[in-house]
Amino acid sequence: MKTLMEGKRNKLLLGLLFDGIGMLSYLLPGLGPALDLIWAPVAGWLMTRLYAGVAGRAAGFIAFAEELLPGTDIIPSFTLMWIYTYLIRRGKS
Description:
Elements: H1 8-23, H2 32-50, H3 53-68, H4 77-92
């Protein structure tokens, strides 16, 4: 039986959810930076749980940095990693 973080479809849905959470700081202007400080390490860790190996660790670092850097919350890093994993990298093999 697949766990919640396994499977192509589940990873896409979770990625969309996590990207949405990362963008919430735009809706809460006063709390945004504080929320980013909390969400950044969580996002990095979640990325490494969703995607294994070197690519997952690199994406985890990128997600962490993206959440900390001002103005970059709009980048859907989880969705981009899903596209890389299931569309780009799969097409090369």
